[in-house]
Amino acid sequence: MQLRCSALAFLVILLPWAAQAQGTSSTEIIRGLCQKDGCAEFAILEKTPVAPGPDGQLFKTKVETFHASSQGRASQGEESGFVYCSATRPAVISVQPDRPATAFMLAPDEQSPAWAQRSSVNFFAIYFAVCHGPEAGRAAAKGRAGVAHSFAYHVPLTASRQISLEHAEDILKPPP
């Protein structure tokens, strides 16, 4: 009896690591934009705090991207970047070697036509998944404004826009 309990305890401890070793589980996958040829999906692999800002927190991220279609899910590789979690200046920041950082400033209440807003679905899904968890990311892919309001976002931008930064950390400077 004691041997069986010890074996059970060992399995309870080992199972989470074994599941992690098998790769990304379906509960960690966040689905973004879907098109005729399939859907963009991603999983957050790393989220590391960098520094607090005047109105948020900057995180360094590593995200694995996928393309899901009727043929299955195929990895598209990993991407490193940053996310600035802020209820007033939410941003997803891309950093490429030897180039200035590009911040995609999110506007959850954007009033552009739905076809124009489709191009930013993945940014919102990634942002909310990093800042508020996978369920929020999944919900944001379907309805960004509702998710933003549920977390008390008050973003003054009326349209999402891209800005150049010398470094990702420049987002920490107070807005003009």
List the helices and strands and how they pair.
Layout: H1 2-21, E1 30-35, E2 38-52, E3 56-69, E4 72-86, E5 91-94, E6 101-105, H2 114-117, H3 121-132, H4 134-142, H5 144-150, E7 161-165
Antiparallel strand pairs: 1-2, 2-3, 3-4, 4-5, 5-6, 6-7
Helix pairs in contact: 3-4, 4-5
Question: What does this protein look like?
Answer:
The protein is an alpha+beta fold and 176 residues long. It has helices spanning 2-21, 114-117, 121-132, 134-142, 144-150, and strands spanning 30-35, 38-52, 56-69, 72-86, 91-94, 101-105, 161-165. The chain has a seven-stranded antiparallel sheet with strand order 1-2-3-4-5-6-7. It is globular. 29% of the residues are buried.
Secondary structure category: alpha+beta
**Strand count:** 7
What's the multimeric state? single chain
Total domain modules:
1
Tell me, rounded to a whole number, the average pLDDT.
85
User: What shape does the CA trace take?
Assistant: globular
| Major β-sheet strand ordering | 1-2-3-4-5-6-7
* Rg, Cα atoms, Å: 19 Å
Sheet with the most strands, sense and barrel status: 7 strands, antiparallel
- Which range best describes the helical content: under 10%, 10-25%, 25-40%, 40-55%, 55-70% or over 70%? 25-40%
Give the distance, in angstroms, between the N- and C-terminal Cα atoms: 69 Å
Strand proportion, as a percent range, falls in: 35-45%
Poorly predicted regions are 1-26
The arrangement of helices and strands along the chain is HEEEEEEHHHHE
How many distinct helices?
5
Signal peptide: 1-21
Keywords: Signal
Question: Could you list some keywords that capture this structure?
Answer:
single chain; 176 residues; alpha+beta; 7-stranded antiparallel beta sheet; 7 strands; disordered N terminus; signal
